[in-house]
Amino acid sequence: MRTIAPLHRNAMNDFDASTRVSRPIAKRSTLADRREQVAQLFDDYSAGAWRPHLAEPSRAWGEPDAGWLEALFNQTQGDGVLAELRGALLAAAERRCLLCSAAAPSALDHFLPRTHHPALSILHLNLVAACELCNRRKGASCEADPQRQFVHPYFDRVPRDHVFLEAEPFAQDAISPLYRIVASPPVDMDLTSRLAWQLSELRLDAFYADEAIHYFREQKASWRSLADLGWPLLEGALERDLDSVESFSGKNTWKAAFLRGLLSHEGFAADPGRFLA
Ligand SMILES: [Zn+2]
Fold first, then answer.
1. What's the 199 CA to ligand 1 centre distance in angstroms?
2. Distance between Cα 47 and ligand 1 center (Å)
């Protein structure tokens, strides 16, 4: 749910390095024979063919070539020749999954799944630092519908300081946060609809709601003490928390949306004690 600058890196150097250590010789020479086609796909991807409906599925190249290309990804793991690439990608995400903006990333998700696009299995622009849950839920999803597409963490432009994620904190008087994507003028309709699809496809609304409920319960006692002294004191504390969250992580995290939801909830402002009992 956020975008960052991509790593500057020569993707064909990564391909050559991982090909060079491939055994046996038949595999190495087959991969070397595919080099030109792989380079073309890398160029196409960077030029816009990163959406599933625009990308050539290299699985169609057949076996064993497709399987061998897919297996190059193993070189990003353990003591593989591309292990440093994994570290660089995780570091670039600054400790937050690029798909949910919440949990710590520990996996590399293939933006275009390697089961369909094995030739892109080590392309750094196709590798996304993600948490285990997002990585598992995204799986091999590869929709042909242009609207049913994930937001690309490197090629899209998701604003950090314009609100597109909102939360309604309560249902009746009970904590039951409802998250949704809203239209925000700098975000075009295509991107807005893909953000909404990502929220639903990865079940981020439920994930965010769980986080918010946990946070609310943790804060409840201290917020109630402030509320006992009057809404302005609690309001000031919530505003300071919101400022700090927004300046650190932008306006579209579950916590920022939840705090804004609390601050703008008329019933909560009128009688916070009723919600914090
Ligand atoms: Zn995640």
1. 11
2. 26
User: Which amino acid is present at 69?
Assistant: L
CA 106–ligand 1 middle distance (angstroms): 9
For residue 101, give both structure tokens: 């903006």
Residues 6+ apart with CB under 8 A from 193: 147
- Measured in Å, residue 44 CA sits from the centre of ligand 1 at 27
Per-residue pLDDT of the chain (277 residues; tens, 9 = 90+): 899 999 999 999 999 999 999 999 999 999 999 999 999 999 999 999 999 888 989 999 999 999 999 999 999 999 999 999 999 999 999 999 999 999 999 999 999 999 999 999 999 999 999 999 999 999 988 888 887 899 999 999 999 999 999 999 999 889 999 999 999 888 899 999 999 999 999 999 999 999 999 999 999 999 999 999 999 999 999 999 999 999 999 999 999 999 999 999 999 999 999 999 8
Direct distance between the N- and C-terminal alpha carbons of the chain, in angstroms, rounded to an integer? 34
Q: How far apart are CA 239 and CA 268, in angstroms?
A: 14
Distance CA(121)–CA(3), nearest Å, equals 20
Work out the number of other CB atoms within 10 angstroms of the CB of residue 220.
Answer: 14
* Angle at the Cα of 268 from the Cα atoms of 256 and 181, rounded to 5 degrees: 35
pTM attached to this predicted model: 0.92
The CA-CA-CA angle for residues 209, 210, 211, to 5°, reads 90
